[in-house]
């Protein structure tokens, strides 16, 4: 089998696919209150196109897909797409990142699909009022209920907490305390400027070191073995049921072992979160490309993968970062 390997010898085996650019929430760090301009439906990849892209990628060694967005559960028939993807025998794991507000009614079906291994649930505060302020929507109780169900399920539950200076930094240790009794992983993410031109001012920079220091001020933590390509550095408070991680998303100290590519909801291929999209797969497909054409394309595109996120950012052609994570697929 031909494999996707970049110029630095990094093997690419993981794709993050945004299934939509739409979202039911309006998180402050992701988009402005009025939302972001969404694209016409025809510009989004269809599920059939996504299936085909993933199939070709799995024939080149990709074995894990993360479905994200926007909010994946906003897209009609997303559950049927999960079922469809499960038929891909080369795919080992399908993981989903969601805000959880719409998924309660789908939980049984999700749990019945064995390839779905991990759900990343975004929750930035444990207080309903603050949660509402951050997401600009009043759905804390729905999200927390889903958290409780998933924690007891056969799925690995990871909580995504974007650390927002002046908003939720006083809750970092509360989130760690949650791992005492709950079988889940809390991951603290450095905030990045992907906010759709939303007005954001940060009082202080909460980077990896500062987050770690805050945790260590209250807990004695033990470092866990981290798989080479993991996005997070992982820790545990000995005796606690769950564990925790910190994702240096903005300080980008994890790029050396990157094993990922991304595809946006409109079919833009991205070698790095910080690049501005290097190829339009949708038009390539719609112009009649065969699976063999797609394969050759992917093999050559990954050769352009930049060494790290700083180089990717410096090489951007469309100006400084301002797009929303909802468009890119977080
Ligand atoms: N709507 C889903 C959700 O919120 O989980 C999936 C898409 S969202 C863009 C994916 C992840 O990106 C979420 O965990 C979210 O918190 C994170 N995210 C969004 N904007 C971010 C930013 N500016 N900096 C860091 N993380 C961000
Ligand atoms: Fe929506 Fe997720 Fe962005 Fe929040 S972070 S606005 S839930 S896409």
How would you summarize the topology of this molecule?
Elements: E1 14-18, H1 47-58, E2 64-68, H2 78-86, E3 93-98, H3 107-111, E4 116-122, H4 128-135, H5 140-151, E5 156-163, H6 172-178, E6 185-190, H7 208-216, E7 222-223, E8 233-236, E9 243-247, E10 260-263, E11 268-270, E12 279-280, H8 281-286, H9 291-301, H10 309-314, H11 325-328
Parallel strand pairs: 1-2, 1-10, 2-3, 3-4, 4-5, 5-6, 6-9
Antiparallel strand pairs: 7-8, 8-9, 10-11, 11-12
Low-confidence stretches: none
Helix content range of the residues, please?
A: 25-40%
* SSE succession: EHEHEHEHHEHEHEEEEEEHHHH
Structural class category? alpha/beta
In one word, what is the shape?
globular
| Termini Cα gap | 29 Å
Task: Note the main sheet.
Answer: 12 strands, mixed
With strands numbered from the N-terminus, the spatial order across the biggest sheet is 7-8-9-6-5-4-3-2-1-10-11-12
Q: Ligands in the structure?
A: S-adenosylmethionine, iron/sulfur cluster
What would you note in describing this structure?
With 330 residues, this protein is of the alpha/beta class. It is built from 11 helices and 12 strands. It has helices spanning 47-58, 78-86, 107-111, 128-135, 140-151, 172-178, 208-216, 281-286, 291-301, 309-314, 325-328; strands at residues 14-18, 64-68, 93-98, 116-122, 156-163, 185-190, 222-223, 233-236, 243-247, 260-263, 268-270, 279-280. A 12-stranded mixed sheet has the order 7-8-9-6-5-4-3-2-1-10-11-12. α1 (47-58) crosses α9. The chain starts with 13 loop residues before the first strand and ends with a helix.
């Amino acid at each position: 089998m031909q494999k996707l390997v970049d110029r630095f010898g990094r093997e690419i085996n993981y794709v993050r696919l945004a299934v939509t650019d739409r979202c039911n929430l309006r998180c402050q760090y992701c988009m402005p209150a009025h939302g972001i301009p969404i694209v016409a439906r025809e510009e989004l990849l269809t599920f059939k196109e996504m299936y085909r892209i993933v199939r070709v990628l799995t024939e080149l060694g990709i074995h894990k897909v993360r479905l994200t967005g926007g909010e994946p559960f906003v897209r009609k028939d997303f559950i049927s797409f999960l079922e469809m993807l499960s038929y891909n025998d080369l795919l080992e794991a399908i993981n989903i990142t969601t805000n959880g507000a719409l998924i309660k009614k789908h939980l049984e079906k999700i749990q019945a699909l064995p390839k779905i291994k991990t759900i990343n649930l975004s929750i930035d505060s444990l207080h309903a009022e603050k949660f509402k302020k951050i997401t600009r929507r009043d759905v804390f109780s729905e999200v927390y209920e889903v958290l409780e169900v998933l924690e007891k399920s056969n799925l690995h539950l990871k909580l995504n907490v974007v650390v927002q200076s002046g908003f939720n930094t006083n809750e970092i240790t509360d989130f760690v305390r949650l791992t005492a009794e709950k079988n889940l992983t809390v991951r603290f993410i450095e905030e990045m400027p992907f906010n759709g031109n939303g007005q954001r001012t940060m009082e202080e920079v909460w980077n990896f070191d500062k987050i770690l220091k805050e945790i260590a001020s209250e807990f004695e933590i033990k470092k866990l073995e981290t798989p080479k390509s993991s996005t997070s550095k992982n820790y545990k408070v000995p005796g606690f049921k769950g564990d925790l991680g910190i994702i240096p998303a903005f300080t980008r100290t994890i790029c050396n072992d990157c094993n990922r590519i991304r595809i946006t909801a409109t079919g833009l291929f991205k070698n790095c979160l910080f690049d501005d999209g290097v190829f339009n797969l949708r038009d390539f497909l719609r112009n009649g490309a065969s699976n063999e054409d797609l394969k050759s394309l992917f093999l050559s595109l990954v050769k352009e993968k930049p060494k790290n996120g700083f180089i990717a950012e410096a090489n951007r052609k469309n100006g400084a970062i301002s797009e929303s994570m909802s468009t890119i697929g977080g």
